[in-house]
């Protein structure tokens, strides 16, 4: 059973939401800044990063200031988008929420369950809107799949996310290499399995977070799913979800989506539009900080099993 993709809000607002961007690394450069400047719903008002030079390099092409003080950025925006390591995000998003700013969060929302719970508590106490950048969940073709999954009677499922995330590419460094596949890769697959098959209650894990992890997931509705994860395969990796039941099989293969640039672009536009709608309406998005906290609890269960 799929959860609702989004809490709907206004389709258009007269004034774009003024968003500050925290971070100036590959994720901020490749996705966040282009997304926030790519449509009328949001307006990028500035960039803050730990390295002032990196902030200036990212801000300059968009004609916005690079802030050297985080508080000064908060003074200029209504909302903050984060593209920084999870522990840094948990701390800085807590400060943003307490300053009354809506937050657009990356996954995972913290490195530890305690960090994630603290962030969720701060957002709830402040009463601000939050939204989680589970990028796959905004793509039209994946939403279509989840709509079919909601009507599919599932006995069990198998999924794999076999990537080269830790071998090569712009993200093969830092916290991702240190903490491994459960923090970097697993949130996407856990979220899709939870949305497509049913709420995940328990996780049983074996393996090594820096090599290969195998998870068995127990869902509230009685279904059982299995998930294989690695970021160490340099060639030939792919992501796939197959659901099985009395009606046969329902499959999502990300290789079919790899070249669909229109679908990808539509997904980023949807992130921007729905975040702006949530901020303007004040109504929480379905993929909010509590979605991130649920995924963090599943990661914590898996880590406990591995220990």
TrEMBL record:
Domain of life, per lineage: Bacteria
GO molecular function terms listed in the Swiss-Prot or TrEMBL record: nucleotide binding; oxidoreductase activity
Annotated ranges, domain Gfo/Idh/MocA-like oxidoreductase N-terminal: 17-130
Keyword tags: Oxidoreductase
Pfam families reported in the protein's UniProt record: GFO_IDH_MocA (PF01408)
Listed name of the protein: Gfo/Idh/MocA-like oxidoreductase N-terminal domain-containing protein
Organism: Actinocatenispora rupis
Source species taxonomy: Bacteria, Bacillati, Actinomycetota, Actinomycetes, Micromonosporales
């Amino acid at each position: 059973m799929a959860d609702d993709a989004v809490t709907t809000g206004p389709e258009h607002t007269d004034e774009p939401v003024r968003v500050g961007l925290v971070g100036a690394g590959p994720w901020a450069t490749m996705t966040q800044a282009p997304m926030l400047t790519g449509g009328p719903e949001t307006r990028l008002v500035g960039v803050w990063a730990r390295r002032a030079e990196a902030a200036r390099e990212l801000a300059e092409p968009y004609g916005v200031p690079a802030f050297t003080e985080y508080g000064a950025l908060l003074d200029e925006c209504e909302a903050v988008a984060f593209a920084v390591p999870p522990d840094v995000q948990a701390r800085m998003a807590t400060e943003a929420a307490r300053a009354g700013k809506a937050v657009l969060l990356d996954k995972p929302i913290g490195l530890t369950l305690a960090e994630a719970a603290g962030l969720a508590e701060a957002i709830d106490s402040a009463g601000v809107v939050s939204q989680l950048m589970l990028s796959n969940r905004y793509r039209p073709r994946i939403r279509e799949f989840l709509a079919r999954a909601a009507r599919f009677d599932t006995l069990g499922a198998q999924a794999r996310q076999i990537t080269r995330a830790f071998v090569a590419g712009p993200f093969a460094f830092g916290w991702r290499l240190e903490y491994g596949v459960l923090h970097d890769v697993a949130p996407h697959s856990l979220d899709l399995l939870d949305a497509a098959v049913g709420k995940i209650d328990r996780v049983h894990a074996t393996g090594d977070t820096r090599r290969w992890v195998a998870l068995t997931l127990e869902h509230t509705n009685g279904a059982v799913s299995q998930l294989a994860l690695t970021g160490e395969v340099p060639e030939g990796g792919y992501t796939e979800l197959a659901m099985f039941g009395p009606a046969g099989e329902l499959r999502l293969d990300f290789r079919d989506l790899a070249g669909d640039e229109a679908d990808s672009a539509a997904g980023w536009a949807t992130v921007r539009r729905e975040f702006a709608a949530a901020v303007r309406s004040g109504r929480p998005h379905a993929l909010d900080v509590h979605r991130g906290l649920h995924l963090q609890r599943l990661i914590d269960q898996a880590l406990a099993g591995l220990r």
